[in-house]
Amino acid sequence: MKKLVVIGNGMAAIRLLEEVTRLAPDLYQITVVGEEPFAGYNRVMLSPLLGGGTDEVTITTHPHQWYRDRGIRLITGSPVVAIRRHRRQVVTAAGHKLDYDRLVLATGAAPRQLPVEGVNLDGVMSFRDLYDVRKLLSLSAARVVVVGGGFLGLEAADALVKQGHDVTLVHSRGHLLNQQLDEAAGHRLQHDLEKRGVKFVMQARTAAIESADTETQGQGRVAAVRLADGQRLPADYVVQAVGIVPRTELADYAGLSVNQGVRVDDTLQTFDPAIYAIGECVEHRNRTFGLVAPLYEQAAVCASHLAELGHRRYLYADSATRLKISGIDLVSFGDFEGAGTGGEGENLQLSLPGGYRRLQVRDNRIIGMVLYGDVSDAAFYETLWREHADIGARRQVLLLGEAFCKAADRGGDGEEEIAA
Amino acid sequence: MSSICTTCPYCGVGCGIRTDGKELQGDSAHPANAGRLCVKGSSVLETLGDQDRLLYPDIDGERVSWDRALDEVAERFRRIVDEHGPDAVAFYVSGQLLTEDYYVANKLMKGYIGSANIDTNSRLCMSSAVVAHKRAFGEDVVPGCYEDLEIADLVILTGSNTAWAHPIVYQRIAAAKQARPEMKVVVIDPRRTATCDLADLHIPVRPGQDVPLFNGLLTWLDDHNALDQDYIAHHTNGFDQALATARAQGNDWDALSRQLGVSKVDLTTFYHWFAACERTVTVFSQGVNQARNGSDQGNAIINAHLATGRVGKPGASPFSITGQPNAMGGREVGGLANQLAVHLDIDNPEHHAAVADFWQTEQLAKHNGLTAVDLFNAVESGEVKAVWIMATNPVDSLPEADRVRHALMGCDTVVVSDCVASGDTLACADIRLPALGWSEKSGMVTNSERCISRQRPFQPAPGEARADWWIITEVARRMGYTQGFGYQHEHEIFAEYSALTALAGRFGKRLDLTAAAELSADQYEQWQPQQWPLQGGDRCFADGTFSTPDGRARFVACENPVVREIGDSFPIILNSGRIRDQWHTMTRTGRAGRLFAHLSEPFAALHPKDIERYRLADGGFVRLTSRVGDALVRVKSDGGQRPGTAFMPMHWTDQFSRRARVDALVPARLDPHSGQPAFKHTPVNVSDWQPRWHGWLFTAATPPAVEYWARVPVDAFLQAGQVQRYRLAGDADLTEQQLHEWMPEAAQWLALNDPSTGHFRRAALDSDGKLIAWLAIGETLPLCDVEWLATCFTEGSEVQALSILAGQPADAGPDLGPVICSCHQVRQKTIEAAVEEGADSVEAIGKCCKAGTNCGSCIPELRGLLETCSA
To answer: Where would I find the FAD/NAD(P)-binding domain in this sequence (chain A) (predicted)?
Structure first.
């Protein structure tokens, strides 16, 4: 049997394992090296876990038995420290030497650190893995500043408020989730989270994280976050949620081509034909990844090649972003702000007490969308978007959703009754 | 409550109604209708209720006590009379008033204030007929009765859309014709109206050509030896001159038919039938009266009847038919500026002395007063400094209506007593007095056939509303007229008026109610419908003696009207009138949504050829412009219109549409004898108007000042407080700010914006989720389900916000249960179906319906479903 080593035990890696063992159950002797001391868990569920909506057992999707059933050797708690490409061997911190015929890098990404003084102070944390969640859950009631109004920052802020902390979220842009939402939806989200007790400081750049003891700069306990405008936010804890950075150190040391991420081709192969890379650590066609859908697709394509059924290519497909922030559903896709239409795009908006819809349209075709709150029609709009469907005839009821569009399709064009 | 008998508040047919306040039916014992009712009458209970009722007196918008209000009115009238003389004040009253109200108003103005400046909205509909009657018969008497219509062999309906304006009279004719198919009906009307359905012959005469038509008839009858020479010789005067005048137009029937715009065959058929049918009734109404020569048109008709001896005989009479429930009662008591009282004349010294003696007054007016149009001209000029308007709406119903409004706005003192709170005239009032409305007030009305019947109350007065007669007598007493206004009950007024008719008899008039002069309160209560003369049968002048000094009827030589060339700038002749389901200015019918089902918005009807010629669109909008005003209404294609003519309903006011008051277009051109305006003949221009957007607005607030709006009442909203439905259209771009201003403050908002296509929707909800306002704007009129929306206003609901915005429920699809996979929005039932079709794993479910294939958060639930489904 050939030897397959997978570095990383995150969601991409596990999907890869599922696929490989399904496609070619007897082809490889597989070893997985996970940095964290856990079996496979669903990282997407860390936010609900932090929010108290679930528990660790539930989010553990692939317990140790799952690996045993498939004859997979799972090494946890001992990260790979080197790849010896010339020997086709990886070495772990504990000294395991693992030969491979094929190696898959699924090393994921690390939370980005703020490029400011004080990020190493006690009480400055990230929100990335089960460790972080356990730590955040153990804090006693305190003042917490969350830096970053992206998905993770908002989840952390909301969860921390629920646990009784006094939470202020600092965001550098004018509205939250600015990658996923337009301004109106971002403001709604802010409003909804404010109602739950999260405080916001918007358009604020973090200048420094200050310690309690001004003598010991960059050491000791955190005391405050200082903003570029001089405002000082007292803090017992600071959670950084300002994005992720692909983890490329191993590949870099091994001499693989690395830019922002580990460079792969359309078969997810790296510069070295024996080494593949998938997930958040890769860079494919100048693009890096952070959402689960493309990761899974990469895992599937990579698995097909490993299974020696290599006929698939990974091509990035713009897909809808679907998020649930503290129970609030959001979906967006495409050019939802009409940035690329040069002013020719048209925007349709629907605003309800519990929801918001925006469709960006050009030439009677949907080119982007934001749904906030009620996302029941997301799939309907996504299909219209993918199919470049002409929405002219349904335009009056389009925002009202699929049911009204169908009713309108049936009901004809609704000639006005002549009153007189 | 047990049921009572009363009289319908609408047209002059005067139908009896039996009601217990909850349900109603036609009074089978009433001679006018024998149990039948039209749609307006049958829905009259739906128009009751406290909504939009004037409940308390107010001065300059501030509620005051009755004492204070009455003192103020009396004091102001007193002061103006003292300083400027009695002709500086005026009353403008209404055919909606009861006989008792009318009587005391007339008595106060003419008898005590000493001016004849009391005129009535009957001036606008009947005064030409009054002149015609007085000239021909020496008294304003309708000689015939409804039965004549049933026993006639020929019924001519001229200037009357009887089917819509007097439906029960029409039904009686229709029933008679069905029983005797040989009976003939001729309709003379420029329009082919619904009334023509009954006609054997429709004479679509050019507007304003009735005199040549009937003069031609007189000549034709003479040519064909069809005159009753004996009757002419013994019972009439002035025939030779009338005939000579008629003959002046010649007897070239080809030429006449061209002039009238009628085929010669039709014309001579009509003449032939008239000659042949001894029993002929000619019904005439506003189409005859509302013309510059309305009086002559009436007399031209009466001439033909006199010349054939067909007056007051069974089945043979000219028959003026009135529009208002008590237009006739008003005429009888003398509530017109050129009458004294009980058919007597102001300028007749003997009449004057007799009435002054009866009323025990030295102030009795000595000369005729100002008729309606002149009265408001005098208000405009400042000659009249105080006007009291009762139960009518001159700002909508007089010609040059915008000018009337302007005049009232500039008047020192405008008092309005009415039963409704909002109206275009009420908006001009300084002092507003709440009057009783139908169902509350008590008194007598006289219908078109001189039948006096009771309006009886069956509901309590709302707020502090009072009877008009009470209000007038209170003001009279406070003006210092302590004698003559001490009535305690309406029956005392009626008895006094009945006693006064003895004077009419003394001067040879037929008006005679003396049998009721000693009426007790109880007898008044028990009053059964009776025609006057109370002792003397149902027809007048049957014996050929008339109310003139010599007892002979008079022919009136009727000159042909000067034909006015229609200028290029105003090429269309606009006619106005009633539609089937509305009444006057909609103060009552506007409260019943179902009465808008027939015709829901103001419109101008035009012939399809004109629609094409002027590039209009059926159902689109038309702007009509006359020399004095303009209107903006919907276009209604009507093949029954004569090309070159248009028809607009008279009902729409500023309360119901932005610019649809037909009388704003009508110039104040009057019949010189009657002072009646020529409503039926307004030269106008028409032009297409294409709005950029259309919309619906449901709100309790006033409608926005957009180019076009029309209020379309909805019955379901009667329970939803003051919410009204408005149809909107405009041609200016809308801003979101404007839309915001059109909506009320609200706890919750729903909004839809598609600015590129001009599609906007708004819904305002209160904190309970109850709809309080709704708006939809689009390039075409957005659809909505009114009945369903109404439930969202009344009940609030669990209804989806999207449905509210849509204005209709989405077709309720099958309930698919809760969303399990939120990424792909897959619902529980869909997943269960997948399992039942064989999906036995989470992966298999994902392949079937995508559930669980994205983030996987729902996989535990999918497992759960797998277990429960396969269990």
So the answer is: 3-286
